[in-house]
Design brief:
The complex is a heterodimer of chains A (115) and B (114).
Chain A (H helix, E strand, L loop, with lengths): L3 E2 L4 E5 L4 E7 L6 E7 L6 E7 L4 E3 L3 E6 L4 E6 L8 E8 L9 E3 L3 E6 L1
Parallel strand pairs in A: 2-11
Antiparallel strand pairs in A: 1-3, 3-8, 4-5, 4-9, 6-7, 7-8, 9-10, 9-11
Chain B lengths: L3 E4 L2 E4 L5 E7 L5 E7 L5 E9 L2 E4 L6 E3 L9 E3 L8 E8 L9 E2 L3 E5 L1
Parallel strand pairs in B: 2-11
Antiparallel strand pairs in B: 1-3, 3-8, 4-5, 4-9, 5-6, 7-8, 9-10, 9-11
The chains are: A mainly beta (115), B mainly beta (114).
Chain lengths: 115, 114
């Protein structure tokens, strides 16, 4: 089975509020994680990544937190906007023969932003 | 603009027919990938290629075939042996020299078997 999964399949927030999307992983040896955003009918877009030697990483309006003790990853979106409505996937890096682009994806969380 | 182009965007197929999905990239990336996405599901790896003339099976390769004759191109054939081919297919690429695992995705091809 997949080693990356999400706690909640859907999340609804009010515009302007902060959003938190969670992800659990089962492989304690995992050392690299990525968050992707996928809008309806489109391919996923990279949001932010984090290595296991970090606990927190910030981007523009997004923050990823990594808790290795409980094998938990979260994506925080500040001041959520209607354009943030999408499905969000966490992914775990899986090395196959040296390739560092091979990812295991979770099932995704659908974020809906209410105006 | 640099990117990944998938075609066709929508494709209909009768049972028993093979179809080929195109994927072209002008990012000069060495590695290319094919993922399958079913409704409400994450992405599952079908095949990947780290270099021209070489490719490996992913998690769900049965019923699919690929080729990598050029760096820019990584076509996927969905054969009649694939029992449930209706899905959204995503092609991606990455720079093999990158220290990150970032994949760049195309816009996808939606295949429907009638």
């Amino acid at each position: 089975g997949e080693s990356v999964g999400l706690h909640l399949p859907t999340l609804s927030v009010q515009e302007g509020d902060n959003s938190i999307i969670n992800c659990a992983y089962s492989n304690s040896a995992s050392d690299y994680f990525i968050w992707y955003k996928q809008e309806s009918g489109k391919g996923p877009q990279f949001i932010i990544d984090i290595r296991s030697n970090m606990d927190k990483r910030q981007g523009q309006r997004v923050t990823v937190l990594l808790n290795k003790t409980v094998k938990h990853l979260s994506l925080q979106i500040a001041a959520t906007q209607p354009g943030d409505s999408a499905v969000y996937f966490c992914a775990e890096n899986r090395n196959y023969g040296g390739s560092q682009g091979n990812l295991i994806f979770g099932k995704g969380t659908k974020l809906s932003v209410k105006p | 603009d640099g990117g990944i182009t998938q075609s066709p965007k929508y494709l209909f197929r009768k049972e028993g027919q093979n179809v080929t999905l195109s994927c072209e990239q002008n990012l000069n990336h060495d590695a290319m990938y094919w993922y399958r996405q079913d409704p409400g599901q994450g992405l599952r790896l079908i095949y990947y290629s780290q270099i021209v003339n070489d490719f490996q099976k992913g998690d769900i390769a049965e019923g699919y075939s690929v080729s990598r004759e050029k760096k820019e191109s990584f076509p996927l054939t969905v054969t009649s042996a694939q029992k449930n081919p209706t899905a959204f297919y995503l092609c991606a690429s990455s720079s093999s020299g990158t220290t990150t695992g970032e994949l760049f995705f195309g816009e996808g091809s939606r295949l429907t078997v009638l």
